[in-house]
Give the backbone structure.
Amino acid sequence: MVTSSNYQQRVWFITGTSSGLGRALAEAVLEKGEAVVLTARNPQKVQDLAAKYPDLAIAVQLDVTKPEEVREAVKQAIAQYGRIDVLVNNAGVSTIGAIEEVSDKEVRRLFETNFFGVLDMQRTVLPYMRQQRSGHILNVSSIGCFSTANAWGFYNSSKLAVEGISGSLASEVAPFGIKVTIVEPGAFRTDFIKRSVVVTDTQIKDYEVSIGNMRQDMWDHDLNALGDPRKAALAMIKAVDSDNPPIRLALGPDTVEVIEGALEFIKSELDAWREVSMSTNFDDY
């Protein structure tokens, strides 16, 4: 059951606020009367929000793959507001292609943003949250962590890496009053695919049978998605408002359905192979 904490104005630091879920979340937080550090690789794209809420928002340049910009953005946030209460690691990119097709260079580019960018942001903000003895980190993951969608393997693996560190982080920082929530969105009506997805140049003909339709159909995916970004934003705010926020916050009926299917599949395979799995100890034990 979700219960609300006593209201206080918080300072949110959100990466990737120029569009999509990041933009929707920033707008919802500002409407609520809380402060937001609006970050984007091109801060001009969020300057309209900063101008609309001059007492609550600042626009800051931030490419999460550049450590110097990460440190400078956090420095500006602290100089302006004196604290960071909520860090939302939302910025992300993707590559479409079969595992065999995507180049090492492209894989590293994807992980630099989706994983190492998140890692750097957390490590830079955590000292301030530990000093405050409070804070909440939201790491935006994906429905893909529970699916085996063709052509999305590297995107999904980068999000799985984020989930891997998030679980450990949640336990490590709990004594300092810091909370961690993994946000797992499904399909939302944003421009993520058109804006942030790269289709690999190398396309092996054999894979047309398994991922050809994905390449052809994905461009209409954003426009046809059932998820409302504003409702996703309100759900994230509700989690932060909660006295007992979830470690994992699934967003969208599609995500709930995929997670339930994945859990059933894991349980069925575990049961089918239980005897083999349980047979690997030394005989003495």
User: Anything to note?
Assistant: The CA atoms of residues 185 and 251 lie 5 Å apart. Residues 11-256 form a domain with the Rossmann fold fold (CATH 3.40.50.720).
